[in-house]
Amino acid sequence: MSRLLEGRIAIVTGAGRGIGRAHALELARHGAKVVVNDYGVSLAGEKEESPAHEVVREIEALGGEAVVNGADVADFEAAAALVRQAIDTFGGLDILVNNAGFVRDRMLVNTSEDEWDAVIRVHLKGHFATMRHAGAYWRAESKEGRPRVARVINTSSGAGLQGSIGQATYSAAKAGIAGLTLVAAAEMGRYGVTVNAIAPVARTRMTEGAFDTSAMALPEDNSPLVAWLASKDAGDVTGRVIEIDGQVITVENCWSHGPSRDAGARWQAEDVGPALRQLLAEAPAPEPVYGT
Hints:
- This protein is α/β, with parallel strands linked by helices.
- 41% of the residues lie in helices and 14% in strands.
- The chain is built from nine helices and eight strands.
């Protein structure tokens, strides 16, 4: 096979199991040196033994190089240390794959404040913290005349793009990640960094409790997309959200301006209804929320 990532240095968060593990192995197969981050938590967010050491052993068995990191990516200082570990161990950082997360699925009216805070923290703050510190490193390298061909691949979800019954908190976090991706791509492009997000579909610990997963793709089916987005060849692709469902890759439109009307003056409340109904009739119908 071709080795798209020969000599490049990557961090993959939440890489002990499922999709993250598949990403770490795929990047290693293409020649990347990998920091395998996994905090080691259950689906409910309870601490347990991390399988990251086994992933490192698998990478080493392939002839690759990898190290374990056990940071909580939503801890701001721990995220900084994660980035520093890659730099100190392998001599730099080229690729950040943000994948870590867990679910606490509830109908909205049954969701506790603690559940909301925990899921938003791990998914959304966990993406922010690692990008913040990696981005600062890439900016400094660029200013010193050592720009790196850097790549960020975030993890959104169909739940964040179309919504999902019983997953209000998770959907909100994943929608936030999509928005964060757009802004990070616009801001970090000047340093040679591309930032994209994937919306993977796979049979994992997180999906098995929420859906019938019997026909879903395997975690490793998502990883070739990540490997290509992480490559030097992908420099012209940034600020995109891309769904991958088995053999099907879809570029998501996300938010874009649709039909509009200019009243020519301040809108009057009684005029809004007829105009807005006409605009809605002209606009594409939204895709149904998962589970409806």
